[in-house]
Design goal:
Helix content of chain B: 25-40%
Largest sheet of chain B: 3 strands, parallel
Mean pLDDT of chain B: 96
Strand content of chain B: 15-25%
CATH topology of chain A: Ubiquitin-like (UB roll)
Strand order of the largest sheet of chain A: 2-1-7-4-5
Number of strands of chain B: 10
Shape of chain B: globular
Low-confidence stretches of chain A: none
Largest sheet of chain A: 5 strands, mixed
Distance between the termini of chain A: 39 Å
Number of domains of chain B: 1
Structural class of chain A: mainly beta
CATH superfamily of chain A: Beta-grasp domain
Oligomer: heterodimer
Order of helices and strands of chain B: EEEHEEHEHEHEHEHEHH
CATH class of chain B: Alpha Beta
Number of helices of chain B: 8
CATH superfamily of chain B: Aldolase class I
Low-confidence stretches of chain B: none
CATH architecture of chain B: Alpha-Beta Barrel
Number of strands of chain A: 7
Order of helices and strands of chain A: EEEHEEEE
Chain lengths: ~70, ~260
Amino acid sequence: MTITLNGDPHELERPLTVSALLAQLEIDARRVAVELNLAVVKKVAYDSSMVKDGDEVEIVNFVGGG
Amino acid sequence: MSDLVIAGRTLRSRLIVGTGKYPSHAIMKACHEASGTEMVTVAVRRVDISRKTESLLDYIDTSAIFLLPNTAACYTAADAIRTAHLGREAGMSNWVKLEVIGDEQTLYPDNEGLLEATRVLVKDGFVVLPYTSDDPVMCRKLADAGAAAVMPLGAPIGSGLGIQNPNNIRIIREQATVPVIVDAGVGTASDAAIAMELGADGVLMNTAIAGATDPVAMARAMKLAVEAGRLAYLAGRIPRKSYATASSPLQGIVGS
């Protein structure tokens, strides 16, 4: 299945939770925010929110800025 | 000297510093320490999936320094609102430095979009600090909409031109019911001192420190300038006059 991850197509074997996706990408969940189909996913919901075929996922973090 | 209080949060330093464009993360950290700042701005951007990069947060002592996420590079209220919500989830605080940009060359704010986004985010429970034009009427509208502070620009972002309209900054301070933070345009220490002497409650800067030849030394200069400017404002400067007034007594002059 294919999702759109940060604007680019990304292949996944099967649907998985936001927590599992972050783990697979080796991203520290504490330091990012995740949007699933334009809705912000609360950190407490990472284990219960499923990423499915065709979903649009944005993963953001803090970078230097003014 | 009294502390700066914004939305109930007390800051001992009136200098807010950015985290962008430093030669390295280590130099940024040293600058933050030298500046004495207790609040730094950060931008919200996509994680680079393909490449592991150092985390900015490894170089910010978040036990001493509060993170203020911005909505830089947002050109619509909708994008700024979306970015603010992501910043809240990433940082776990409800504060936002709100930017809605209206022009690529000047990076001047789109004040209509800014006011709209301020209203929405205040309703959503955010502490909103809008980056705005140096316009007293706009600042009043933003405060009326619930902004926790107003952040008029001194000059275009990154320009280093200094305070271009000192009279407006003075009027904004006189009229504002919320703290006034001069945001953007500072080039060197005297610019920061002037902003504070005009009555600003604080100054926010990034490029003036990050782009200096010796950023850490400039960070310290800015700390001193903000303190000096604040002290001078509180001390009350003398009126300007066109002609001289002698400082030494006119009586007892030898030979008279």
